[in-house]
Design brief:
489 residues, Aldehyde Dehydrogenase, Chain A, domain 1, 2 domains, seven-stranded mixed beta sheet, six-stranded mixed beta sheet, binds NADP nicotinamide-adenine-dinucleotide phosphate
């Protein structure tokens, strides 16, 4: 929750400008607008108890091999699958996700847990180095307690990306989730506890922003992983810098979807709608900018428009609904302002932007064209079902436009020849590019970006190594204290 100037945090909530006490963490169903449940902010003693338990467990875990922890991750995966329906409903009520997409998110979490259970210990094995100094190897040690600060758009998956690898590493974790998805945070913690994970291994705390900084400053905490906006990321990264803690930042994106002049439009349109409207368009790697070769532009625009019209708003619990509400009233207001400002600055409204006659936080899928570089929309991330479509007359122009972003998270390229698509992908300034397919997130693939999309990677061996101590050990059979080059003392 963004704290307004005249508001102040207390131990358990917030005093607003009139001095009225509000609980900061609450589930408000974005389909019905009903306040479902409120949660008090963590107390100082809860934080201290959590840090103590986490630090104790870190020291215990150091004495045992990583492989010992694999079984617990498999148990967690099994419990996720067993309780999938119940867990999926929590997501629907917390932030409005379509029930089918919510089920998919639970399954993806189970896949990630199983993957790191199966491969984590192998990835953590020491690596030998050939060196004149002696027998050298690098061990991968745990670091200590970590804080993860997570967003509401994939409330379980974002946690799991940090949780599964770091559980294998042996870093106990504290979760600070979004103030609008507390029920998902509590549900994830319950799965971990029900599986029988040791006390302190994963604790959900409803922390205020101020408490986040205090936790980062604590000497028992050795790192912070944040996924969220660049604004939130920059505050947390500043605290991590101040207290010299390792950090990884997974921030926003303004991904390009490049359609080259020999692309097969039938294939393109199989993924274009999904690439923009999945999760109601609230994905960091949603394709926010379609960059289309001149010869395909008119047909693409027409067919994307037709596809967008097929999206049916309604109850996200109903399997037939294909357009979910946005997560909060504030998210809808922000997106509406961005669209209004874009149009006021000269963008053309091709389609959409009408109010939807339902009480929930719905936003009609919208297409904007003719966005010039001086339009505020050109560099902004629009977090909802709004597609920007650009016309380009050459491949060079497409690559230049795709890279002309303050962000650099993902991207998609469609080309007649996938090899050529890869060549184009190599030239785009971004963290991940998928050619002739939708963007995937799987545990074996590193996930992350550059520029204002943040730094570091989650998932794969890169993500697993984000918070390890790569400790060098060198030994010799007989000491040689000669004048070898490189000998320091
Ligand atoms: P957000 O406002 O930055 O919130 C993310 C998390 O950071 C929440 O837990 C939030 O807590 C916390 N936070 C925000 N400001 C903070 C501060 N000053 N001090 C401490 N904690 C703070 O982002 P969001 O709106 O929830 O998420 C949407 C953004 O996330 C989009 O930009 C999206 O692209 C990005 N995202 C990136 C990835 C990726 O992998 N790169 C994945 C998903 C989403 P409160 O709720 O209490 O403010």
């Amino acid at each position: 929750m963004l704290l307004k100037n005249s508001w102040s945090y207390t131990e358990t909530g917030i005093n607003n400008q009139e001095g009225v006490f509000l609980l900061a963490y609450k589930t408000i169903n974005p389909y019905t607008n009903e306040v479902v449940k409120e949660y008090p902010t963590a107390s100082a003693s809860e934080i201290e108890t959590t840090l103590k338990k986490g630090d104790k467990l870190y020291r215990e875990w150091r004495k045992e091999p990583a492989a010992n922890r694999a079984e617990m991750l498999h148990k967690i995966a099994a419990l996720l699958r067993k309780n999938s329906e119940k867990l999926a409903k929590v997501l629907v009520i917390d932030m409005g996700k379509l029930i089918n997409e919510a089920r998919g998110e639970v399954e993806l979490c189970a896949i990630i847990a199983d993957y790191f259970a199966d491969h984590g210990a192998e990835m953590l094995k020491p690596t030998s180095l050939s060196s004149k100094a002696g027998n050298a190897h690098v061990e991968k040690d745990s670091l200590g307690v970590l804080l993860m600060v997570e967003p509401w758009n994939f409330p379980y998956y974002q946690i799991m990306r940090v949780f599964a690898p770091n559980y294998m590493v042996g870093n106990p974790m504290i979760l600070k989730h979004s103030s609008n998805t507390p029920s998902s945070a509590a549900a994830f913690e319950k799965v971990v506890n029900d599986a029988g994970a040791p006390a302190g291994s994963f604790t959900n705390l409803f922390l205020s922003h101020e408490q986040v900084t205090k936790v980062i400053a604590d000497p028992r905490v050795q790192g912070v992983a944040l996924t969220g906006s660049e604004q939130g990321g920059s505050v947390v990264a500043e605290a991590a810098g101040k207290y010299l803690k390792k950090s990884s930042m997974e921030l926003g994106g303004n991904d390009a979807f490049v359609i080259l002049n020999d692309a097969d439009l039938d294939q393109v349109l199989k993924v274009a709608k999904r690439a923009r409207a999945y999760n109601a368009g609230q994905v960091c790697t949603s394709s926010k900018r379609f960059i289309v070769a001149d010869n395909l532009y008119d047909e693409f625009l027409k067919r994307l428009g037709e596809d967008f019209k097929q999206l049916k708003p309604g109850d996200p619990m109903n399997e037939k609904t294909t357009l979910a509400p946005l997560s909060t009233a504030a998210a809808k207001q922000k997106l509406q302002k961005q669209v209004d400002d874009a149009i006021a600055a000269g963008a053309k409204l091709y389609q959409g932007n009408h109010p939807i006659d339902l009480p929930g936080q719905f936003f009609e899928p919208t297409i904007l064209t003719d966005i010039t570089q001086d339009n505020p929309a050109y560099y902004e991330e629009m977090f909802g079902p709004v597609a920007q479509v650009y016309r380009v007359s050459s491949e060079e122009e497409a690559i230049k436009l795709a890279s002309d972003s303050h962000y650099g998270l993902g991207g998609i390229v469609f080309a007649g020849d996938p090899k050529h698509g890869e060549e184009v992908a190599s030239q785009i300034e971004t963290g991940m590019v998928f050619v002739n397919t939708v963007l995937y997130t799987l545990p074996e693939l590193p996930f992350g970006g550059i520029k204002r999309s943040g730094y570091g990677r989650e998932m794969s061996s890169l993500g697993l190594n984000a918070f390890v101590n790569e400790k060098l050990i060198v030994s010799v059979d007989k000491p040689d204290l000669g004048n070898a080059a490189g000998a320091l003392f």
